Amino acid sequence: MKSRGSNSYLLYNLPRLGVVALLLAASLYQGTAAAADLTQLRVLFVGSERSNEYVDFLKGHVGTIEIADRNSFDPALADRFDVVLLDWPQNEEARLERNAGESPLGKRENWSRPTVLLGSAGLNLACVWQLGGGSGCTCLDPVAYDLKDHPIFESPFHIDRSATIQIETPEAFQDDLDASTISVIPVVDDFKENWRAGWCTYSTAFDIYPDVEFFCGGVNHKTPTAAAIWRQGNLLHFGFQQSPKEMNDIGTKMLLNAIAYISNFSQDRPISITPSVFVGPSARPRSTVAAWLDNPSRASWVEDMVTPELWKTIQAQGDADAKAKWASENTSYFTTDANSKLEIDQDLASLEMGFDDPEFLPVVIGELASSDSVVAQRAKKLLTRYVPDGPSSMESASWVKWHEENKAYLFATDYGHYRWYLDPLAKTRGIPTAELRGAKRMDVR
Fold first, then answer.
1. Angle, helix 360-367 to helix 373-386, in steps of 10 degrees
2. Domain range list for the chain
3. DSSP 3-state assignment of 238?
4. How far is CA 258 from the centre of its chain?
5. What are phi and psi of 123, to 5 degrees?
6. pTM to 2 decimals?
7. I want to staple 126 with a disulfide (CB 3.0 to 4.6 A). Which of 131, 297, 382, 437 is the partner?
8. What SS3 class is residue 295?
9. May I ask which residue range the UniProt record assigns to the signal sequence (predicted)?
10. What is the rounded distance in angstroms from the CA atom of residue 215 to the CA atom of residue 228?
11. What does the DSSP assignment read for 138-185?
12. Is the pLDDT of residue 8 over 80?
């Protein structure tokens, strides 16, 4: 491994004028980055292999662009920049780094800069920091698909989402889409060339997370719902692997818009803890059991994702339909053990309620004060297991007070561990997490 921490830089100091553009931008979507913002941004490129290609392009569009070698980067030096671009391609060195828990950006809890993760940097960083980008496929073609109606495609450059071409529906999409063709926007001139694949992230359950936004997908070899460009907290995943030199005008404008947009998110952070299957065992969401049992081609896979005890119970249900029916009826009671295998949580089963049920917290917190010691002990176990951000004390009054103060800022998921999370940005701003979504999470200055 190469040591990190030296302060060697190649400096490109390129101040630009943008007063007129700033005035013109005032009428744009409130809070989004305008063209003048882009020309004033201080940008740091952290990488090695493609530094010159990015600098040659960006020096004509941003206020200041500097390069830091990825292998010797000191994360503290990022504090004076508005946006960081991380280029961390997949290779053997990257695999060893992520397996060792090493990141060019240091520790997740210490990183505050708005950052664009280029291509496979989204996978590599997700593996180390346990981000949402750790589940997906290195199979993204340079072809955008399903662009959302979102400000990121409006400013500083308007992207015409209707300027599409028709291509034959990819084979991997055909189980989900009935149409023989799909509308796409290539981000390179000749998308039929053999381009290096980018990283796309499976977007299942994105809508659960208040800190996540889906901007567009891309043609890939897995699923039409995989995300190519998306945001988690202060991190924007730009999954296309092509450099600005390889992209067409639309592709480079998407990149510039991504830089401008993420510059507004220095106060947001990724919330959930999501282990990646590429660095160790990772529990699947509960609904997978019933879904796979109902699919003859996947039913046998369930044995590998559950404990032997749960598999024995499933097998005892009878035929395939009975197994799937039982799993569906008991999904709420599934949890994960220390080895990331799914099992039945007997405490949830006796409560007859899933940990993510809206009534779970009021009911279980209420049971802390039960005169029945068995009920009270069950409540303590459930709160310890599923609400790690709660009070350290198991006193009923402490939990009642905590829940009253924080209930508007809580959400639960079985995609980022099996637990409840507290949305810190929502709490800081005093806005319910259900209402603080998307662009509303931009910096408040």
1. 140
2. 9-262, 287-441
3. strand
4. 15
5. -70, -50
6. 0.89
7. 131
8. coil
9. 1-35
10. 8
11. EEE-SEEE---S-GGGTSSS---TT--EEEEPPGGGTTT---SEEEEE
12. no
